[in-house]
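Box 4.2: Ligand-aware structure prediction
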Amino acid sequence: MINTTINPINLNNQTDLTIQPPASGLSLRGSLSIPGDKSISHRALMLGALAQGETRIQGLLLGEDVISTAECLRALGAEISELTASEILVKGRGLGQFQEPIDVLNTGNSGTTMRLILGILAAQNNCFFTLTGDRSLRSRPMSRVIKPLTQMGAKIWARQNNNLAPLAIKGTQLNPIHYHSPVASAQVKSCILLAGLMTAGNTTVTEPALSRDHSERMLKAFGAELKTDPETNSVTITGGNSLQGQSVIVPGDISSASFWLVAASVVPDSELTLKNVGINSTRTGILDVLFKMGAQIKIENERIVAGEPIADLLVSSSGLQGCEIAGELTLRAIDEIPIIVVAAAFAQGTTLIKDAAELRVKECDRLSVMATQLSGMGAKITEYPDGLEIQGGYPLSGAEVESHDDHRIAMSLAVAALQASGTTIIKEATAANISYPNFFESLQQVCDS
Ligand code: S3P
């Protein structure tokens, strides 16, 4: 058990976390460097492996999902230096030059790894691949990427009506398509763009709303021929142009910063500085939501680093108000909805989260799990097919809660526990290592100071 009365935190090999804030309350203070952006880290490794020459990556996230990507790329023949260094070197193999691995590729818990790599493998002529993942990933829909790839001529086999991993792929030469995606999903868009990169002609993806655009930015930086049309949310890649290795600096992940933004907002007398956080506008829904709720956040030192906007965020405690979150705002905060539910539970008034059905097919059903677990601590939450309604302001009490082995649920529940009376035990809290190794050490650090 990670036994923390917040002070001291005691990490050992087991998976549960106990949080017991002192009866007098606590405050969070200090400065944190936020670990590298998960989406950008996956893409830096993948494009580095597909490029000619060497790619240098600074600030790569060393979370379990990114390690899964590195392991798969190594099995495909890319040379990637040790993942402990502050700078990672990738020796690329060039487009279409991956080797056939001698075993199943295991993408662990990472949907991004499985869906993006599938686009690359499908276009890898004459090689055979098998892809699997952990129990959670083997239950997540893959037809959203198998369908467009099949339209391009890909040969992919999957369980349950061609939808679930394990997957088998026979790489082949693909044909370009114009795909109108029914979901605004960066994973779907990126999968098709990567397949299009290795396919002669123009491949276009149109999505119903603009999902995160890290692939577009990085593909361009590596030398791909790519055009975006913001009017129609379309992106077109012209295949066949080789990529050149680059130097990538990975910004801090705003999804990881979001736990601190909410924690310092709801825990009285708190002030945190979060350094080098990516503020790409396709990702800043969490800031817009928290501003709507009345949070005190200053965005300082804004700059562009390696093609991505970054800033330092200064957050201090404030009384939050409920608000409505729907449409494009939900999409821009898609990974932050669990921690927004926690913010809403401590806010005055009602928060309504709509258009969030995608959360049901993330690492777990995040709508149902957040509703059940926070209700167990005393929150008032109603669940709808595509969202949640939270009546804020009811005091929370410590309880035994389940993370369902989902990193973002584990960290969200830890933040809720900071302002709950009594003891909270979070089962499988070490799931946080998927995207935020050392989250609990950082929590200890800012509680101590
Ligand atoms: C991601 C895209 C999002 C997000 C996921 C990472 C990416 O998923 O939820 O955590 O890196 O492309 P969808 O594209 O499926 O919405």
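In the box above, the bound molecule is shikimate-3-phosphate. The two ends are 24 Å apart (CA to CA).
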